[in-house]
Design a protein that fits this description.
0% strand, globular, mainly alpha, 146 residues
């Protein structure tokens, strides 16, 4: 994909994050509903690739809205909350899997992920300075001589 193609697809980071989150909800639900191992494996691979794309977009958005003197504290807090969510969500999803099967746990995970969508819509409404994807963002990083 050429940089110009990516820019025409998404003009704002929050748009990409919303689409990615909706796709994640769909993928998780499909993993939970399928009984075919190969299909489930393909869906998990697509989900993992989507997750890998969303991470840098989210990080770039956050870095732009947090003043530099507060960035380390806020990003550390964000990381802590994410880890705490895992400490709570993983045992809960494990229990769902124990009682109702792995498929049900994926469907519940899809529902939990869907709860993020309204917050992403609210973030888009803020029109943060880091939300637009600019031509500068699309330039490759300079290579270091080494």
């Amino acid at each position: 994909m050429q940089p110009d193609d990516a820019q025409t697809q998404f003009r704002r980071r929050t748009d990409a994050l919303i689409v990615g989150t909706v796709a994640t909800v769909i993928l998780l639900a499909l993993v939970g509903l399928t009984t075919n191992f190969v299909i489930a494996l393909v869906l998990v691979v697509v989900w993992a690739m989507l997750f890998a794309v969303e991470g840098p977009l989210r990080q770039a958005y956050l870095n732009g809205v947090i003043p530099s003197e507060q960035r380390a504290t806020v990003l550390s807090f964000d990381n802590m909350i994410g880890a705490t969510g895992g400490v709570i969500a993983q045992p809960a999803l494990g229990r769902v899997a124990d009682v109702n099967g792995y498929g049900a746990a994926y469907v519940v995970a899809a529902g939990v992920q869907a709860l993020a969508i309204p917050f992403l819509v609210l973030a888009r409404r803020e029109k943060a300075v880091s939300d637009p994807i600019t031509d500068h963002d699309m330039q490759p990083a300079p290579m270091l001589d080494g």
